[in-house]
């Protein structure tokens, strides 16, 4: 029986991943470095170490990581002045609340980043538990974020379903023993997802009630 839903944030609730990709791509083009979608998708849902290893390897001259981050962040801030929820995210939150499911969030980003968007989009109050990189030693694909989330909301792993858009998130959720529904975005839709419970093009494809019926009947 499903008792809880746990949402990723970046790329799932708001498609920040596509915005970050465009920002880094634009910044790196100034230094004659071509960032591909395939390379960027490796860092989606986890830390940015892989991305900066790639950048350092391909730069003709060393540039401080902080400078590239700052330039990309400025572009992202401009592009996300008016963030939008991905399709039917709020429908899922309303449905979960109305049916008495516990609602949590598990993100590899910082608490400040995540909560600022949740509050701006007026959905912060839906979440009884929020776990971010500030709460763990290792982010996804390590399962620690999900393990801490289910511990705090008081359910067994088999009683929770994670909603993810990335391979790193899927790996983390499955390692933690959760069901995992994949809802890719523009950056991750080309990836080969395996060992998931269900894949949706968007949350508009199936209602939360139908998703849970599907998981229960598997």
UniProtKB/TrEMBL annotation:
Keyword field contains Hydrolase: yes
Pfam families: HAD_2 (PF13419)
Listed GO MF terms: hydrolase activity
InterPro entries: HAD-like_sf (IPR036412), HAD-SF_hydro_IA (IPR006439), HAD_2 (IPR041492), HAD_sf (IPR023214), PGP-like_dom2 (IPR023198)
Entry keyword annotation includes Glycoprotein: no
Alphabetically ordered keywords of this record: Hydrolase
Protein name: HAD family hydrolase
Species whose genome carries this gene: Gottfriedia luciferensis
